[in-house]
Specification:
Blueprint (H helix, E strand, L loop, with lengths): L5 H15 L10 E3 L6 E3 H17 L4 E4 L5 E2 L4 E9 L1 H5 L6 E8 L2 E9 L4 E6 L4 E3 L2 E2 L11 E4 L9 H12 L4 E3 L4 H10 L4 E7 L1 H13 L3 E3 L12 E6 L2 H16 L1
Parallel strand pairs: 3-5, 11-12, 11-13
Antiparallel strand pairs: 1-2, 3-4, 5-6, 6-7, 7-8, 8-9, 9-10, 13-15, 14-15
Helix pairs in contact: 1-2, 4-7, 5-6
């Protein structure tokens, strides 16, 4: 596959994602369980994902996909779209506006193009590798607040409740050293909030790639940093822990806290 023009593709991606969001506003949808009572999928998730797959294949023929719903994985391409049709499905199913359509384009080992769209608040986050991060076309940047003045966005591992105690210990330890915590119920919006300065720290013990891939580029292009639970480079193809911060100093401190509890 030839090298693509990311700027042109970014414009097309915004149109596709906004069009894909139309079913989200429908008040009627079906709900089914995927893996136990905590992990649900709606008919809207499936409809949004199918639309994205169809339209993104048109603009980038031969591309691969890594999608949340229906275990759709087709990784046989140097360009791979990583898609979460609705991040925060539990919120969406309860009419809570903290949910997002997430699309990231992986080239080689890196995410090079991304979009995270919150349909109910009309916040469209976007980024191209090396070109900065944007919210509704306006440049965004992480805050300069130090660790002790930071807000931590986090969650317990809702699909892996066996990690509840270690997550709780990490959250309490961090809370005692920072300003406060928030739990919005959707990873991608929280990471984007970090990118624009609404919070400064992020911790989740275990996420799937589609939960963070698109948002991670927006964060890094906004000046933020992220890693796995051990401070290593994040894997975009497999489930992993995810830590993020507005500065390297704060990220290193968060890694130390997490590591102290993992080692225990």
């Amino acid at each position: 596959m030839e090298k693509i023009n990311l700027r042109e593709l970014s414009d097309k991606l915004e149109d596709i994602v906004r069009d894909a969001a139309k079913p989200v506003y429908d008040a009627t949808f079906d709900i089914s369980l995927k893996e136990g009572f905590a992990n649900i999928v709606t008919s809207t998730d499936v409809a949004v994902q199918e639309y994205l797959r169809k339209e993104l294949t048109k603009v980038l023929p031969g591309c691969g996909f890594l999608c949340e719903e229906e275990d759709f994985h087709n990784l046989g391409s140097e360009y791979t779209w990583i898609i979460d049709p609705i991040d925060g499905t539990a919120n969406y199913s309860r009419k809570i506006d903290q949910c997002a359509i997430c699309v990231g384009l992986k080239y080689g080992k890196d995410i090079v193009l991304s979009a995270v769209y919150l349909p109910f608040t009309d916040e469209f986050f976007s980024a191209i590798k090396g070109k900065g991060a944007f919210l509704n076309g306006r440049s965004i940047h992480v805050s300069e607040r130090p660790f002790q003045d930071s807000i931590l966005c986090t969650a317990l591992a809702v699909y892996h409740k066996q990690y509840a105690r270690v997550c709780s210990a990490i959250i309490v330890d961090t809370f005692l050293q920072c300003n406060d915590i928030r739990r919005f119920g959707a990873a991608a919006p929280e990471i984007c909030y970090l990118a624009m300065g609404r919070c400064e720290l992020y911790f989740e013990y275990l996420l799937s790639p589609w939960d963070f891939a698109a948002a991670s580029l927006i964060l890094s292009e906004a000046g933020g940093v992220f890693c796995d639970l051990r401070g290593k480079k994040t894997d975009f193809l497999h489930p992993t822990g995810f830590l993020a911060a507005n500065s390297r100093k704060s990220l290193d401190r968060l890694v130390e806290i997490v590591q102290s509890h993992i080692e225990e």
